[in-house]
Q: What sequence folds into this?
């Protein structure tokens, strides 16, 4: 019971952390009238049609700075895996057409040699 509660709580935290910007925008939409009345700095300029978007922009900027200040780890640092740039090069295709050199790790250990002699069975 405790284990499943912990899993549900952790999953909820992870989902909410990834949805920070969406939560800010939904909160802004739901409370837009209140934000316009109390937090909008452009109330003296109604021709700008700000409608609280200045407040939304400042909140999104604050969140971006907050996330920018935390040290971001890359996938390879998180999981201790070395990923070479050549392995990820297919993710960023270039505009030029380059011939694809297929690299194979298969080695033919049983190479065929061409013999000009005719093999005869052993004589008794």
A:
């Amino acid at each position: 019971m405790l284990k499943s509660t912990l899993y549900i709580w952790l999953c909820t935290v992870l989902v909410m952390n990834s949805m920070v910007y969406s939560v800010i925008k939904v909160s802004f939409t739901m409370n837009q009238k209140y934000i316009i009345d109390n937090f909008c700095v452009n109330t003296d300029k109604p021709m700008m049609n700000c409608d609280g978007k200045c407040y939304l922009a400042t909140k999104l900027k604050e969140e971006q700075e907050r996330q920018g200040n935390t040290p971001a780890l890359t996938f390879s640092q998180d999981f201790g895996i070395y990923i070479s740039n050549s392995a990820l090069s297919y993710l960023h295709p270039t505009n030029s057409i380059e011939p694809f050199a297929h690299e194979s790790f298969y080695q033919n250990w049983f190479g065929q040699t061409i013999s000009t002699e005719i093999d005869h069975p052993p004589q008794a």
Q: What stands out?
A: The mean pLDDT is 72. The chain is about 45% helix and 0% strand.
